Amino acid sequence: MARRRQIYEGKAKILYEGPEPGTLIQYFKDDATAFNAQKRGTISGKGVINNRISEHIFTSLAAIGVPTHFIRRLNMREQLIRQVEIIPIEVVIRNVAAGSLSKRLGIEEGTQLPRTIIEYYYKDDALGDPMIADEHIACFGWATQEEMNDIADMAIRVNDFLSGMFAAIGIRLIDFKLEFGRVWDGDYARVILADEISPDGCRLWDIKTNQKLDKDRFRQDLGGVEEAYQEVARRLGLLQPEEESAVLDLDSHRKKRGK
Q1: Which of 28, 142, 159, 229 sits most deeply, having the most CB atoms within 10 A of its CB?
Q2: pLDDT score, position 131
Q3: Would residue 161 count as lying in a domain?
Q4: Is the pLDDT of residue 256 over 60?
Q5: Within-domain flag for 221
Q6: pLDDT tens for each residue of 37-64
Q7: Number of domains, the chain
Q8: What is the rounded CA–CA span in Å between residue 175 and residue 205?
Q9: pLDDT band (50, 70, 90) for residue 259
């Protein structure tokens, strides 16, 4: 597919105009960032793996009735998505204490929470994506109460589904991030799931060993980052061992040719 006009570039993805009105092409990069982009690097093949994992998860969620922006995967690094008006709130769902929650509250990492927690963060890199409350969202009009109800309901439903899906392949879903957007039909807007779901935005631990299979390996300089992402894809049945090298070699060859 010929390259189209770039709409936006973020830390991990680039958005291009789509082939039809109301669509975009989402391109997955190998770039990796942490600590609000203070740490930068590259995870070889990450874009390929995340594209396939996110496609699999969004397709599975659509099958159980969760509305998403995903339309179809176009190639190794690109997928066609619906254009949405992004709601400037990151929704973090926590099942187990880790990351900033452990630091803020002094809870030992790996502690099972008595109940799932939903947290909200204002999407603003310059401010470091500060944590916010429902009152902030209502006060500044970032989303209506009806939209927040829909977001919370979808977040819990996605968490229930993903927790079961990952548990079935020996992975514990510690926490993860979701983003949502509005699609308009005349004067009426409804909220749908947007962005991506991949090891970039999830904490995923092996159930038996507690080995981390996500971007924390990059954040914490644990090594084996590429292997961890590939392991998640393999367990999901998306990347067979015999095709792993071929997929990543082909991707490398295409990037060298500028395709």
Answers
A1: 229
A2: 97
A3: yes
A4: no
A5: no
A6: 788 999 999 999 999 999 999 999 999 9
A7: 2
A8: 10
A9: very low
Look up the domain containing 171 and give its range. 86-206
Task: Give the tokens for residue 54.
Answer: 């996110």
DSSP letters, the chain, are -----EEEE-SSEEEEE-SSTTEEEEEE--EEEETTTTEEEE-TTHHHHHHHHHHHHHHHHHHTT--BSEEEE-SSSEEEEE--EE-SEEEEEEEE--HHHHHHHTPPTTPEEEEEEEEEEE--GGGT--EE-HHHHHHHTSS-HHHHHHHHHHHHHHHHHHHHHHHTTTEEEEEEEEEEEEEEETTEEEEEEES--STTTEEEEETTT--B-STHHHHTT-S-HHHHHHHHHHHTTSS-HHHHHHHHHHHHHHHHTT-
- Please determine, for residue 231, whether its predicted confidence score (pLDDT) is greater than 50: yes
